[in-house]
Amino acid sequence: MPGKPTENPAEKHRRLILAAVRAVPRGQVAGYGEIARRAGLPGRARLVARILSEGDEPGLPWHRVLRSDGRVAFPPGSEGFDEQVQRLRAEGVRVEGGRVRGQSAAATLDEMLWAPPPR
DNA sequence: CTCTTGACGCCAT
DNA sequence: GATGGCGCCAAGA
């Protein structure tokens, strides 16, 4: 039966991913792959990147999403890079050379990810 | 339909 | 730490 307008998988995924990104607390960072995993879409890091690249969703803390190695995903020197670094620093995140510092940024971005930052 | 591109990730060298 | 190759998936040409 009818009923439900069968939501496209793509749209559902988008919604889940956006929710996962919003769930990242201020002052913290997460990896694309980690976001995908939290959204229930393991291995879809690229999908996360693609959705963020669309740039919609106002208020979305996209700047808290980094590569798995703790590096900013934009090419150094680009606008996106600069803006992301500024935003992160504005939240108290230590960024050096386009890389987030904090012991490991995310050795595996799995367990220590949601650890509260010392202050 | 095929081919390329991309805000990625992991592993080997 | 830097580079290169392969995997993955969606969108555009």
From TrEMBL:
State whether keyword Disulfide bond applies. Answer: no
Q: Which residues form the Methylated-DNA-[protein]-cysteine S-methyltransferase DNA binding domain?
A: 15-93
The record, for CDD domains, names: ATase
* GO molecular function term, any single one: catalytic activity
> This protein's superkingdom?
Bacteria
**DNA damage keyword on record:** yes
**Xref: InterPro entries:** ATL_DNA_repair, MethylDNA_cys_MeTrfase_DNA-bd, MethylDNA_cys_MeTrfase_DNAb, WH-like_DNA-bd_sf
Q: What biological-process GO terms show up in the record?
A: DNA repair
- Entry-linked Pfam families: DNA_binding_1
Keyword list (alphabetical) reads: DNA damage
Question: What name has this protein been given in UniProt?
Answer: Methylated-DNA-[protein]-cysteine S-methyltransferase DNA binding domain-containing protein
Origin organism is: Arenimonas malthae CC-JY-1
